[in-house]
Amino acid sequence: MAREAVAVQPHWxxxxxxxxxxxxxxxxxxxxxxxxxLEQSYGRTTxxxxxxxxxxxKPALYHYFRSKEEILLECYRWGTGLIxxxxxxxxxxxxxxxxxxxxxIYAYANVMTVNFGRCVMRxxxxxxxxxxxxxxxxxxxxIDRRLRSFIQEGIEDGSITPCDPKIAAFAIxxxxxxxxxxxxxxxxxxxxxIASQFAQTLTQGLARRGRPAPHPNGTRKVSNRES
Amino acid sequence: MAREAVAVQPHWxxxxxxxxxxxxxxxxxxxxxxxxxLEQSYGRTTxxxxxxxxxxxKPALYHYFRSKEEILLECYRWGTGLIxxxxxxxxxxxxxxxxxxxxxIYAYANVMTVNFGRCVMRxxxxxxxxxxxxxxxxxxxxIDRRLRSFIQEGIEDGSITPCDPKIAAFAIxxxxxxxxxxxxxxxxxxxxxIASQFAQTLTQGLARRGRPAPHPNGTRKVSNRES
Amino acid sequence: MAREAVAVQPHWxxxxxxxxxxxxxxxxxxxxxxxxxLEQSYGRTTxxxxxxxxxxxKPALYHYFRSKEEILLECYRWGTGLIxxxxxxxxxxxxxxxxxxxxxIYAYANVMTVNFGRCVMRxxxxxxxxxxxxxxxxxxxxIDRRLRSFIQEGIEDGSITPCDPKIAAFAIxxxxxxxxxxxxxxxxxxxxxIASQFAQTLTQGLARRGRPAPHPNGTRKVSNRES
Amino acid sequence: MAREAVAVQPHWxxxxxxxxxxxxxxxxxxxxxxxxxLEQSYGRTTxxxxxxxxxxxKPALYHYFRSKEEILLECYRWGTGLIxxxxxxxxxxxxxxxxxxxxxIYAYANVMTVNFGRCVMRxxxxxxxxxxxxxxxxxxxxIDRRLRSFIQEGIEDGSITPCDPKIAAFAIxxxxxxxxxxxxxxxxxxxxxIASQFAQTLTQGLARRGRPAPHPNGTRKVSNRES
DNA sequence: CATGAATGAGAGTTCATTCAT
DNA sequence: TATGAATGAACTCTCATTCAT
Lengths: 227, 227, 227, 227
Fold this sequence. Notes:
The structure is a homotetramer of 227-residue chains. With 227 residues, chain A is mainly α. Chain A folds into two domains: 2-68, Homeodomain-like (Arc Repressor Mutant, subunit A, Orthogonal Bundle); 70-222, Tetracycline Repressor, domain 2. Helices cover 63% and strands 0% of the residues of chain A. The first copy, chain A, contains eleven helices and no strands. The radius of gyration of chain A is 21 Å and the shape is elongated. Chain A starts with a helix and ends in a 23-residue tail after the last helix. Residues 1-8 and 211-227 of chain A have low confidence and may be disordered. At the A-B interface, helix 2, helix 6, helix 9, helix 10 and helix 11 of A face helix 6, helix 9, helix 10 and helix 11 of B. Chain A binds a DNA duplex (21 and 21 nucleotides) through residues 18-19, 22, 46-48, 56-60, 62-63, 67-68.
């Protein structure tokens, strides 16, 4: 993957020669910016930081992007693009609703471990202009709707326990989105391990199967749901 | 609760009289700041914004806080305080591990619907100085360990399916934390409804009980984990 | 006049004390800026130049004006204000059209010798935003219409030779506006001398009275107006 | 005239073929620059703007001109050249001083309707380096002296009313220079119409002939200058 | 105490100008 | 030759922070 290649060969190498593919340079800038945004927050990342890490000067960035915000927006676009891509693949595959949800969790979890994916969920939307915000919101809503539709399918085909698809989708999305907050590329678990464990936990639930659900007495308000 | 009172009586009223409890004023500032941080991001919120909304002047803020960052840090402290409080209550209660987890979800979900709680999870930690960051991280870690210990208890007392408590805790925490991203005080669902639905979904899982777990063949990457 | 007072006591003195009339300071800034705009052009005048000449710092200017352009616009407003003022006075006075035109020339010429007046005519309108430009244009058009109406009156009451009021107004306005280009406060002629000579030249014409006016017959370039 | 030809065939066409007279290209650049300087002011016109309108790249400009300022200076030179040209012609023609002044007005007015001429009078001299400024001032002074000498001649030969030639020259020059501010090539009046009307107004004056000059009593400040 | 005024440091952005190909 | 890429210098503007009253 290009991503890996770039990781191996640091981004600033894209700028050693003047005659290098501009698209490569553009991506190098985005990668670097995304990383810095995640490390220090968008607000504290200056264009100088970005430039310095790429061994170029600040105005050089303006050959590739019109403004700092455009860089931010492109990170969002790239990230949501990654997600949509896998969603489309999943939606096309046959399978029960539950299977689709599992596949969603798996794919999504993987995206959350790469910088662009993390940007989408971690960066503060308040830093986008209202126009850009609208665009990003549209992407996110599309993703959310997809997940809900999978759950709905599952309820209809009997693979998923009847529930409010909206809330269930939020729970799942939340769990998976959160990965971007604690995942560390150098950490003990691979992205795949995390992804499959998440699929397991969220679809099967925490409660032990084969015995009656426990009596939730004592827990103040938890709805009684046992048989 | 003070919080509710303040909501009814807007924060700036705390400053109408010179003879008002300084602690009240301090809290009013924090509440206002927290709200603005959530609305516009920390970076885009100026102390002028805060002051203006409170009908006071900027330097007046410096009577109550040493710096902008201190305000931010106090928001974090207040939010984590709310969480710890309920955790201690829960830990003291008897019950199975699963029950404790349920109670945790319920309590946590509620905290995520108030501004200070949302700040803890939504604001970008990159805006904290490294010292303050260390402090906040300590709080968060403590919360995370508590949740893991509940899960561990549950595994040991048989109420929870054997699993990696770390990952399970992340899944649950993620789902619940995410509430702060989409919850709207004026929305259709009350905080309590959300909380109990979440407890349900996360403990029981999505998959329908009483039938064999579905065959996830065909779904590209989902690891085959049953039988 | 305030203007004179300020000239005697240099503008930066307005800033020696922190507690000075803000309006005075605002005007001091405007005066200084106007002078610099005339000396170096708007584009080459930096806010630092303005600040330095006033012995204050750059951001202090932003206490009194929202932007550099606002300073420019205010110069225009002040200048056009001076003109309008005298126009209104003149219009009210009785007298033939020609007398009004003379009075106009006289008053206008005087305005062209003070900085704000010079700004109105010398600075490049291209440096105004389109909104501000519209405003300024409105002012200028009003002035122009006034002059034309005086000429029209004169034609009607017989004090002015029949002619196209539009062109005549342009000729007069041009001659007088141009003063701002060559007038030097320290120069040999006082503003009043200039003003009255102009009134003379423009109303009576260059040509010696008492002999027939020459024939400007349609001849394009140098008219051959023989013997 | 080259000027006309270029107007018909837009300037950028000069660059369609590589084998084109470099002088033609140089002029095309100047024409385009002059136009932009007049449209947007020198300060706001970037070399990119110029290049874009000519469909060439920015560094290409540097083949023909050493710097942006050189372009500006060349515009001035071209414009003053046009004026001098006609002045020499006029000076050579026999005729009274008044006739020469008329011819001057006529010729000058025409120059003020073409871009290079307008540049000379409209652009802010503050944008020139001091060296270039000195050069331009020399040109302008020469023109001014010429006009004054015509007036002086007229006074001596009796065709012009005795007056201060300096002031009179300023009045005339001002009126005519100002044309560059309001003249629009597409406007209702042709350059020639304007020119001859101006000659009329300025030489004959506004005041109606054949009756005594009016009594300017009542007009506040007008000096009483009649007998 | 509280405030209007002021500041220093730094951000994003622009642009004339020059390499390097 | 002619150009895309890069730069350095500068400018406007912002904001947390602190005097001075």
